[in-house]
Structure prediction request, 744 residues.
Amino acid sequence: MMKKLFVLAVLLLVVGTLVFANGTKEATSQKAPDKIVIWTNLTADAQTVVLKKQFTEVAQEMGIDFEMVTVSFGDMYTKLATAVESGEVPDIMHTNFAGSAYLYSQDMLTSVDDVIDGLGRDDFISSYLHVLNAGGKTWGLPDWALHTSVWYRKDLFAKYGISIPKNWAEFKAAAEKLCIDENGDGNIDIYGFPVPLNAVQVAPQTYYEFLYSAGVTTVDPKTGAYTFGSQKAKAVEVMDYIMDLYHTVSPKSSLEWAWNEYRNALVEGTVAMTLDMGAVILMAQNNNPEMLENIGCFDLPGQYGNKPASFGSGYAFVASNDGDAAKIALKKEFLTKLYTPERAAERALSRPMFAFPSIYSGLAIYRQDPKVSLFQDQIDSITNAFENNNWYWYGMENGLSQLSSQIEATTFFGESLQSVALGMESSKDAVDYIDQQLQEQIALIK
Amino acid sequence: MYSLKQKRNYYTQRQILGIVFIIPTVVFLLVFVAYPVLYNIFLSFTDARLLKQNFSFVAFDNYKKLFTNPRFFKYVKNTLVWTFSSVVGQLTLGFAFALLINKKSAGTGLRSFLLIPYVVPAVAIALVTKWVMNGDYGIVSWWLNRMNIIEYRQSPLALPGSAMATLIIVNVWRSYPFPMLIYWATLKSIDIELYEAAHVDGANAFQTFVHITLPHVKDATIVLAILRIVWTATYFDLIWFITGGGPAGSTTHLPIMIYQASFGTFQLGYASSISMVLGLSLFVCVAFYVKKSVANER
Prediction:
């Protein structure tokens, strides 16, 4: 009898606990504030501190909770792929354009044209919006962007009487003149221009800056039709020019140089010019402050003077289409509040290189900051370049495209360029192989 | 006296208990070994991609694509060069150091010192390697240039042959402690009386080494060779961090190809077919060694 009573008591306790727990959960869910999960690929302290501060401020303004998850760039595609597979994508993702393209291709995003219109479309730099466009809609809010420029030694240009080159012929002539044997030992101490060709990301970035300067694109910027295949002769010409630079004015080891190597070379004074997105400034500030006043930048000239487009990179906020209308409205309100001029400028300034805010009102504040106020000429040069030229990220000339992440995460560009540089392959064969690979990737996307 | 029925119950209970004890292992093997392998085989016959939820059966298309890829055989060759050179180097160096630390004069300090490479993270090794091999300020590049082996401001990592050689040297340096420990344990297990008897019989050091030491480490060598071949052929991070597979694909091996197919172009089916080829090759290699070692035992 006692045993039965005991079993009955336990059962009652279990049922009671379940009912009570359920009731508590419901009561909690009614009272709990809404929560937004945000992933960011930025992992540097300076950036995550600013992001967390801003997210906290906005969440407090809205009376909601948020969770910020940092996902390193190296893990991004793996994590995104896993998240997409499990259907647990974050509410808001702060990622680069390729990451945005990936989520768009998965049909995971909600368009943010209403947010942009609410904030004032004219305040956004149009080329930033273009890159996040697909099917007539904008799928992300550009946060900040980086612009490739030629960073150079002003003192050496002055010393050797070199003016800013206006076409490729002048550019090569300047680079040749800047190959300097300072101590007369027969070895070049300062090379004119390094051609960094590290297979992982760097080589395609180098090639694309020159391709865009010569008018070659992967796809048509207006129609999205594949164009690289019909521009192969020009692509070979561009590759030949790059190889000419590599063999005449670049250190041989630049074949495997990535970002740090070429930035360091300019800052330490072993090259006179380099392509970069502005991180050389921070590197000079940290490692060789005396070099700062000697460093300037100009836009890589077009092949014959007129430059059709430039290569650039950047970050965006995208919102997932997961959840009901109220949840999506909540995400959009959150994003809207992040786009005050002050916050936009603060985020761009937290980037350890020349990252430009995506809104003009933010750019005005950005320019006044002591961190960049010394570089007004460089900012003028870069803003002039991206206001007067088109500005693309590889494979996204017509807006969001999965192709960009496939170019970024593979090495067929780098392998081909390195093979040509080492004399193992002709430029024509390399371009044919790149064309074949690009077409294969495009077919896979479809 | 136990009745027959009681005895049967006893054995049945023991059998059930035995089954209960092996269930966790069986479940573990099924979930973490059998299922992934079978699923990988299945995926290799599909057009599965990370980009889409649905996929269809494509028979041998992935394998056809793989074997008609002009760069595949180059990567296979790279995998073979990388694996066999590394394994031979690791085993040779590991054995040499095992002989050294097996001497009575070798102290704990030397033994600990020789283990250091095994505990250094691959990322740290990669960064230091890139640093010392840098064409502008790398000490190794500077030495090589002074010896007229490479051009001024050239890096061994920017030349196809020397890039692979560098990776193999770094990998041998990083991995020799494991064979060293196994060989050392084996050497310690050899009966000292064998050496004493050989000495009494007038055998010199070389004869003792050839006729006593080498035969005793043969089995350990087979096991080590199998393990190191499997581990080295599938080793990814060191190559990826140091050369990224370059220059010009000269250090790209099959694991890098698998990675790029999986997370570069998101072709899971295609990546599975590459991993099947790699897995089967390793399986054949392992089976060959196991068969040979069993035959030797008989």
In short: The interface with chain B takes residues 77-78, 81, 84-85, 105-106, 187-188, 191, 197-200, 251-256, 261, 264-265, 268, 270, 402, 406, 409-411, 414-415, 418-419, 421-422, 424-425, 441, 444-445 of chain A (CB under 8 Å). The radius of gyration of chain A is 26 Å. The CA atoms of residues 133 and 399 of chain A lie 5 Å apart. Chain A has a mean pLDDT of 88.
